[in-house]
Predict the 3D structure of the following.
Amino acid sequence: MKASRFFISTLKEAPADAEIASHKLMMRAGMIKKLGAGIYTYMPLGLRVIRKVEAIVREEMNRAGALELTMPVIQPAELWQETGRFDKMGPELLRIKDRHERDFVVQPTSEEVVTDIARQELRSYKQLPVNFYQIQTKFRDERRPRFGLMRGREFIMKDAYSFDRDQVGAKASYQVMAQAYRRIFDRFGLRYRAVAADSGAIGGDLSEEFQVIAATGEDAIVYCPGSEYAANMEKAEARAPSGPRPAATQALAKTPTPDKSTCEDVAALLGLPLQRTVKSLVLATDEFSAAGEVVKTQVWLLLLRGDHDMNEVKVGKIPGLAGFRFATVAEIDAHFGCKPGYLGPLGLRQPVRLVADREVAVMADWVCGANVADHHFTGVNWGRDLPEPECVADIRNVVAGDASPDGHGVLAIERGIEVGHVFYLGTKYSKAMNATFLAEDGKPQLLEMGCYGIGVSRLPAAAIEQNHDERGIVWPDAIAPFTVVVCAIGLDRSAEVRAAAEKLYGELLATGVDAILDDRGERPGVMFADWELIGVPHRVVISDRGLKDGQLEYQHRRDAAATKVPVGDILAHVR
Ligand code: ATP
Ligand code: MG
Ligand code: MG
Ligand code: MG
């Protein structure tokens, strides 16, 4: 590709509604364009990334023996009525009518349609096992579409469905997929964890989520550094002893100097009912005298709302302190003077609403922090003119430091982005839709199923959350829109530069390297800023000056500086 013929449209500023790095950077790099809430166009640059993600997914699904098909996006309601999901699913399911007033849905996933295919086509045990998959548009009318492609309403999912003759077969098919997913996520070049997830009404342990590790992730992952144990928070909580426990508070204030430092104390102080479902975190801030003595201690309550529809539990009405906003968990740690990651492992989501028990207008140059000697932070300034936060975080009943259920040490918690999910379904759908095959004994038997999703359009956003810096995106090679950019400096003036650039570009293409030649004639500063923002991992600079010494400049996107490389050696660097 030549940049002069490609569509490059970068922005200095991200739009105001972009809150997290991936959303901001995708907008600024011109990868996506917003059409409506949670609805985006994949611009040429963004589509290149999506296509690379799809290619890896497709290759590994095919390698695992799954068969690609494409099911309709618009599906008759009758099938969804058979399983009861037409009525049972909430407003996330988009229901539409055609000109004859017949009901349809826009696929949020496709168990009904694929089960309908299976009951017609899979008649004999001889045809089993089968795994059908598609890479296709989905629509979910999310309550809060946000973060760009991360939580869209229209998005691309790879969804696969396995059909087996019995449970043993279905579980084997599940394992084949779980292994294929590991290969897929390894190939993306991202740090991820496979975690046990709740398998809901079906029971059993056959549900895993694939979570890309990132501080801005919406999910909390509980894992044991000393063993294989890893689960999402829901699953971990399901195993944890129930009932109220002030563990979060204990973790923060091992030596509680203030007398009001537990959830229960603060709830009493504020006259609030405090139940297990009330997600809250109490922090104490100390005001110090010049001599270093604590002269005043305040109790702060972080109210954590998350997706649980808690209505701010009245505490939000306490005057004066609503509206403190923290962009990331790391910043919360910084504001409260905690060590990095101190609060994060408690499962906070961001942003967070901070509410206290008394009116404070502005606090300048405060000392604050958890009541642990080395967890204080000086010079903190909080103002009340900060924007209103939208969402409040979650504190869960499983906290860092709890014993691991497998007995191999204590638990740690980190944030993740769900990019994949594998799930054993059993006969949930085949039973509802009477999808049977003829078994060896000639009798009809229900198909055993599993379903397996990958968030194809979410994946690039997750990759960026994990890999970016102040200049822009840093793509892993496997999913970069281009692997190498050849920046030709002054090619309008220099026939030699042009010739060398064209030659190198041709050689890269010939050896199968996905290269783009920046032949736009832009100034180096502009050119470099664009490619650093876009995040192309390898950059080669060709200039008159370098060519005189027979050299080119090579720089990986993560390198601090360029290195000079003899013209003949450059291919070895970028492959
Ligand atoms: P989430 O918990 O994020 O809402 P989910 O559990 O509802 O996701 P699944 O039904 O498991 O999602 O769908 C399979 C995959 O599709 C998810 O693992 C995720 O990567 C992706 N996905 C789900 N919802 C969205 C969305 N609104 N936007 C982009 N990708 C999504
Ligand atoms: Mg969902
Ligand atoms: Mg989920
Ligand atoms: Mg899921």
